[in-house]
């Protein structure tokens, strides 16, 4: 869980302080049976309410504190519709939709196809609490200012003092293949449809990765 927290916040200083399992085998079975054919995600929120906000790819925390409490939940988001934050707070999703998606920092609906989208700014809004299954209650330590300082200091000062180490081409090919395979098997990347073109030196590796 600490790895998930660090990865989501892109942090090197975050520390997991406490994690409590608040689910039960029966509640998990009932939830998954009810929403077996619905899109479900595991997301973080501060608390469950009439309008529960789940960041798409972020963790809610108070910037003025260093100790934070969140819930890690399984959420049946289903089909979502993009609306303003104010609309999502006051209106239920229309027919054929189960949830909203809102921009936390901008309450204006804009065309998205030509914009550089920061996914961390967006949240799902769930109005039906039966679609939320709390799994873990988590306490973690995270100081935004400390993180910034750590990243500013995280640099290779002696890089010019040593000669670079080079793998032989054959070893590099094996390394790239293993990393690529592991990357594609990870939960958050296995659904990707992007095609990654890799070249080492002047040799095209497309022959090693047939589509």
TrEMBL record:
Annotated protein name in UniProt: Tripartite motif-containing protein 45
Source lineage: Eukaryota, Metazoa, Ecdysozoa, Arthropoda, Chelicerata
